[in-house]
Amino acid sequence: LDSIPIVLDTKDPDEIVETLVRLRPTFGAVNLEDISAPRCFEIERRVIEALDCPVMHDDQHGTAIVVLAALKGACKMLDRDMTTLRVVVSGAGSAGVACTNMLLSRGISDITVLDSCGIVHAGREGLNSVKSDLASRTNPTGRTGGLAEALDGADMFLGVSAGVVPEQLIASMAPDAIVFA
Fold it and tell me: What is the pTM (predicted TM-score) of this model?
């Protein structure tokens, strides 16, 4: 498989989509890279609609695939059923949203997502459309607060954001917790 990195001097979704549509006859697939949320979701959706070839956003799909594979391995080693885990995802950008979607699709229903302002939940004001959608599909017990409240008793932690998790918060997790920092 050959690939050519094409760096675009724009962050405008319209210009990015138009450029990829015009380049399509030259390429068999598109791998989007380093496009921040929430723009990445709109751009990916529009490129998929516009092109007749595979489209992947590495920060979303590549990360989510690796996380799912690692979680399957961890659950096998610990003899645990993935669907019973209480999961905490720190980061509601492209990687965090994609990982959350992947875990939800695999039957994990108790997922708490945090962004830089704390737990993403249905009653929180100021959520963009992506985080509002996440809030409607995650956090089934209605947790609020920050990382301490989210990690208390959690079975798995996935860190896909900047920051350090204090040791005492990891210690507050369930026995045999899985940590992907």
Answer: 0.87
